[in-house]
Design goal:
heterodimer; A: about 350 residues; mainly alpha; Arc Repressor Mutant, subunit A; three-stranded antiparallel beta sheet; 17 helices; B: about 475 residues; alpha/beta; Rossmann fold; 3 domains; 13 strands; Helicase Helix-turn-helix domain-containing protein (chain A); Helicase_HTH (chain A); four-way junction helicase activity (chain B); Helicase_C-like (chain B); Helicase_ATP-bd (chain B)
């Protein structure tokens, strides 16, 4: 058995209202893509459509999600006349679109969710909670107390962290940093965040208790926790060095898989696709998939599009699809050209980022 | 030999007490004279103190075999909180590197907690043997008998493991054991000559109540009523996690009590918070499965209610023993709905393999994701049992479980004194008459008379502090 789950990666959290948020009233969306994004499958097709649905920030958000739960919510929404499903493509009905509007006003809307993909949020949260408890008890000079139960590496890390910082005025620093952070949040969110914390004479409140107090569904409370933790990481990254910021040490992540990153670095260094494939014992098609994953997950300026799509090819493709909406492009429209499917897809990615990312 | 003076001195220095509780010194003296010892002491009597003190006086490794990971972790933390840093629990929840670190540094530890499964691993066993433990403790020793063959077969190997460790001095502790269970523990540990230190299991400050229902709604309504009227804190036991969640929600809605569920499905952060809120009286009632309690040391629990039947009287007595550790009047209430025993029977039966299952699993080696029973049967095959022997053993086991349940049902139905029945069951002499005894000796349950009627309703909801106050309080800036 592995170490017990923690709050961030808890049991499946989806509810029907959450599902409405992933859907559109104008464009049918593939339910399997939505599901695979939430579970965290990194196939190019899933990631590409996840990007088109503006859902990439949710990659791996609900790893425990089952087909049964997903289908149950779909069935319910269809039954309530909010959703229409053909094959496994779903589109919101007029009533569904109205509900989506209402939910956008009333349901918690995340502000910093993409941060999830750039940090080990779960470990950060464990570190932060334990550090807060340690500093709180220190400020009351308590030596004997019941510590939060966290994974062993987290415990070891906090021990070292404490040895490094204990002579600093930790409680003043925690007080100042947290006050600065919470001040910029809405009162409800700041209160929610502060109540989760554990310290001297404060066992902290559970997510379920906070959900009940705030009239939130557990899905919404879970989202609020995740997003507030993301906002906090984002806030700390912009701050000057402090004991609190040091809790992020070693937790940065690339939004793309290690293998894809390896391929991308080699390509950037000038290796040819075949050469990369040969050295890494990968099929060339896998090498190309790595590059597509990187293109999807990284900002435009961090991916060498021009090395894979010549200006001439880009012009050719632009002309071909000039009058068409991106989601209606078909690869077989290019049957007269030498363009390969992966190049076509890469161009789609580029176009998607150039036009849609502003949304 | 260690003198009593040494024990008293360490008791004062380490624990700040001047006197032992009944049974503690007797057990220590018995161990000091080199006697393997079976100590049957009621819950709350301080069994942990015995081996903690023994380790502190003899400066040798104390190896504690314990049934539950959560219990081991609690025990390690309690030792840590008391300032003893040389304690560790070797559990299956550890990462490889952590596990390896502990195994490689065993000689730095004074107290090591392990499950029987962990101790059965050759590498662990060899490492423990190398540091020569001064005392082997089998905690919750009734598990050898009650959990034996169908659930945790490694418990049956403990006798053999003890030999492999070079027959270290052994202490077996439990809160509840009938004569049969005591004999069973000694036989399976191969310690038939072990000394017995027995204290009365009775807890005279716990009033015993059983209430019977014909409809589930009536039982639920009564639970709501009881929780509204009873002095808190209290614990309600369920045999299903789902029901514990549901009733926690219902009680939060229908009473002014602050209620939370506690069971093995909760994540570590939530479990910590619920446990600590309860310890600090910020929660009034816990809806728990049996995962809660073994390590909980809260002495002012006023009531323990059972919504479902436990599997046997030992478990029942163990669980109600959480109440009234401070010696104040408390109450144990068992809510019985006609047919509840079928759920109990089902849960009990489900763990004991049937003949056809035994035949099947005997022939098929378990895979990684095989049923628990597959591993169970394979365990016996690996240890040289024949198919027929296994079938016979499990048939006997099923009969034993059925008998245990029927004895619990007798407790539920018996129209005479419940306490006298319990004492008879545990083979102990009937103690002098308890003034507030049980539902059959009084005119039912009178909370007023027991002093257990809530005087002022507890304030509902937690303090609505704003974030500024919380942060200031956390870091002592208020």
């Amino acid at each position: 058995m592995v170490c017990k789950r923690t709050l961030m990666v808890g049991e499946e959290t989806m509810d029907a209202a959450e599902l409405i948020g992933y859907l559109s009233p104008t464009k049918p969306r593939r339910l399997r893509v939505i599901e695979n994004i939430l579970i965290g499958k990194r196939t190019v097709s899933t990631l590409y459509w996840g990007m088109r649905y503006h859902q990439l920030a949710w990659l791996g958000y609900d790893k425990q999600l089952t087909r049964q739960t997903m289908d149950g919510h779909v069935e319910r929404l269809v039954h309530d006349g909010l959703l229409s499903v053909t094959d496994t493509n779903a589109v919101l009905t007029k009533k569904g679109a109205e509900r989506q509007q209402v939910l956008r006003q009333t349901r918690y809307q995340p502000k910093a969710l993409p941060v999830r993909l750039t940090v080990d949020l779960d470990t950060f949260w464990q570190r932060f909670l334990l550090a807060t408890q340690v500093v709180s008890e220190q400020s009351y000079q308590t030596r004997k107390y019941y510590p939060l139960q966290v994974a062993w590496p987290v415990k070891q890390m906090i021990k070292k962290w404490y040895q490094q910082f204990y002579s600093a005025d930790l409680s003043a620093e925690f007080n100042a940093v947290l006050t600065r952070f919470l001040k910029q949040l809405a009162v409800r969110e700041a209160t929610f965040f502060s109540r989760l914390l554990v310290g001297h004479d404060r066992p902290g409140e559970t997510l379920l208790q906070l959900a009940q107090q705030n009239g939130l569904s557990s899905s919404e409370a879970h989202l609020m926790l995740t997003d507030l933790a993301c906002q906090f990481v984002h806030f700390l990254r912009a701050q000057s060095d402090s004991s609190v910021k040091a809790l992020l040490a070693g937790l940065s992540r690339q939004p793309i898989s290690e293998s894809a990153l390896n391929t991308l670095n080699r390509f950037q260094a000038g290796q040819a696709l075949e050469e990369i494939g040969h050295q890494r014992r990968l099929k060339v098609s896998t090498v190309k998939e790595h590059l597509l994953e990187a293109a999807i997950m990284l900002p435009v300026d961090q991916f060498p599009y021009e090395k894979l799509l010549t200006p001439q090819l880009q012009n050719e493709l632009s002309d071909q699809f000039a009058t068409q909406n991106l989601d209606d492009w078909q690869f077989n429209q290019l049957s007269n050209t030498q363009v390969a499917f992966w190049q076509f897809r890469l161009f789609e990615i580029l176009r998607s980022k150039q036009t849609d990312d502003q949304q | 030999m260690i003198s009593n003076d040494q024990f008293y001195q360490t008791l004062r220095l380490r624990f700040g007490f001047d006197s032992f509780r009944p049974g503690q010194l007797e057990a220590l003296t018995s161990l000091a004279s080199g006697q393997n010892t079976l100590a049957v002491l009621p819950t709350g009597a301080g069994k942990t103190l015995i081996y903690e003190l023994y380790g502190a006086v003899t400066h040798q490794l104390v190896l504690v075999v314990s049934p539950l990971i959560s219990l081991m972790q609690d025990q390690v933390i309690s030792l840590n909180v008391r300032g003893e840093k040389r304690a560790a629990a070797l559990t299956s929840q550890m990462s490889r590197s952590e596990h390896q670190w502990v195994v490689n540094h065993l000689k730095f530890y004074r107290y090591l907690f392990v499950s029987p499964e962990m101790l059965s691993q050759p590498q662990v066993l060899a490492a423990v043997k190398a540091v020569k433990p001064g005392l082997l403790v089998v905690d919750e020793a009734h598990c050898i008998s009650t959990w034996g063959p169908d659930f945790r077969p490694e418990y049956l190997l403990l006798g053999q493991i003890r030999h492999q460790l070079g027959d270290p001095l052994t202490l077996m502790t439990t809160a509840t054991a009938t004569n049969r269970v005591k004999a069973d523990i000694k036989r399976k540990m191969q310690l038939s000559k072990a000394a017995e230190i027995i204290q009365p299991v009775d807890r005279p400050n716990i009033f015993l109540d059983v209430e019977r229902f014909e409809a589930a709604d009536d039982k639920d309504a009564r639970l709501v009523e009881l929780v509204s009227e009873l002095r808190t804190p209290g614990v309600i036991y369920f045999s299903s996690k789902k029901k514990a969640n549901e009733m926690a929600e219902l009680l939060n809605a229908k009473t002014s009590c602050r209620v939370a569920a506690y069971h093995a499905d909760l994540d570590a952060e939530t479990r910590f918070k619920v446990q600590q809120q309860f310890m600090q009286d910020q929660l009034d009632v816990i809806c728990a499965t049996s995962a809660f309690g073994m390590g909980i040391d809260k002495n002012n629990i006023r009531f323990v209610i059972h919504y479902h039947l436990p599997g046997d009287l030992e478990s029942y007595w163990q669980e109600i023993g959480r109440a009234g550790r401070d010696g104040q009047q408390s109450v144990a209430i068992l809510l019985y709905l006609s047919g509840d025993e079928q759920l109990s029977q089902f849960l009990s039966d489900a763990t004991v393999p049937q003949d056809d299952e035994i035949s099947y699993y005997f022939k098929h080696q378990p895979q990684e994701n095989s049923a628990e029973k597959a591993n169970l049967i394979w365990f016996y095959k690996q240890h040289g049992y024949r198919e027929e022997q296994i079938k016979l053993a499990f048939t006997k086991r099923r009969e034993q479980r059925a008998l245990a349940l029927s004895q619990l049902m007798t407790y539920v139905r018996i129209p005479t004194c419940k306490r006298a029945f319990i004492q008879g069951y545990f083979g102990q002499p009937i103690a002098s008459k308890v003034s507030q005894c049980c539902v059959n000796d009084s005119e039912g349950l009178d909370l007023q008379q027991l002093g257990l009627l809530v005087s002022t309703p507890v304030s509902s909801g937690t303090q609505q502090a704003d974030w500024q106050t919380i942060i200031a309080q956390l870091f002592n800036f208020s």
